[in-house]
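Internal tracking record. Fields below are filled automatically when a chain is submitted to the structure queue. Please do not edit lines marked as system-generated. If the sequence contains nonstandard residues, flag them in the REMARKS field before resubmitting.
Queue: standard
Priority: normal
Entity type: single polypeptide chain
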Amino acid sequence: MKFNEIDFDTYFKNYPDKDGFFGKYGGSFIPEELKEAIKEINDAYQTICKSSKFISELRRIRKEFQGRPTPISHLERLSKSIGNGVQIYVKREDLNHTGAHKLNHCMGEALLAKYMGKKKVIAETGAGQHGVALATAAAYFGLECDIYMGSVDIKKQAPNVARMKILGARVIEVTDGLKTLKEAVDAAFAAYLKEYKTSIYCIGSVVGPHPFPMLVRDFQSVVGIEAREQFLLMTGELPDAVVACVGGGSNAMGIFSGFLNYPVDIYGVEPLGRGKKLGDHAASLTYGSEGIMHGFNSIMLKDENGNPAPVYSIASGLDYPSSGPEHAFLRDLGRVKYDVVDDSETVDAFFKLSRLEGIIPAIESSHAIAYAIKLAKKMNKGSILVNLSGRGDKDMDYIIEKYGDSEYFKE
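SYSTEM-GENERATED OUTPUT FOLLOWS
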């Protein structure tokens, strides 16, 4: 199936299908004892997502608590520095409460948990933004909160660990394997398996077994809906290109959702890290192959035995050996182009945006900024809209430790 064979007017009604598949990707590959619990989540979501009371409450929360809609900013000085007239804009999810897009689905998931009568939310986190967002949602709704986080990421993301604890969450260190995001997901799933009757698993991206890729996409689609309307109001036209970073892919699916059925080029940016060698990057859609992990079928990076391969990214939120099944589907369709930027390009973009525009981006978001700069240099005219998925407060200690003696601080 190709892009021109899909009716995007009805896309969100048809994908995923009733079994949670986007074409051949997605589904639910989980232990028998979890099937009833996951079905309970799906049934509850399918009920409340059509409820005017639920929708009204979520809209009120977004407006009065999250500070939505977040604005679009024109990066005038960064655009001018490229020098060919191409204009770059950013959707400011860094101005969403807690500093990233993650609260968009966390407030929805926590509201769902209250509807279901659950007492606790359980989740994994990499960069810590999902953990902070879920801890915030749990505090808002009066729920217990357990966050599983790899010890490597705990060290890199100390400010977010402190925030989670201040908000009342229990941060549980994961020391298995590479001690990063994959292992945190493993540990969170194992914990949920023991507590599913009184808890709900709140996954941090458009990954996992059905209905999570759909549920998170739907909650994040507010980003794309806002962005399309705002950009039209600002410029009188749609952007020529939309760009977002992709790890699991929640921020990307959020903004892509608003443009899939419009004549806009869409780019997902993966982390090339230190290079193309397996273990030096986390670009699953670019270098991976079909495989099942964490309860869903998608494109993943594998070792010589077919198991999830070790991955690396300078961005803790992107070091995951697979990507959301809908991203794999959109890649195969050709509707979204997936490409890569490496660590050096990412760090350079981080400092460029900070110094030219007064916006310190998350390292995850810096991947998208780096790609937008490269893309702008190839274009003769037009506009690019980047989803600035989060702010860089969480990355300050790491950046100073890693680059404090570099040329970036001598300019």
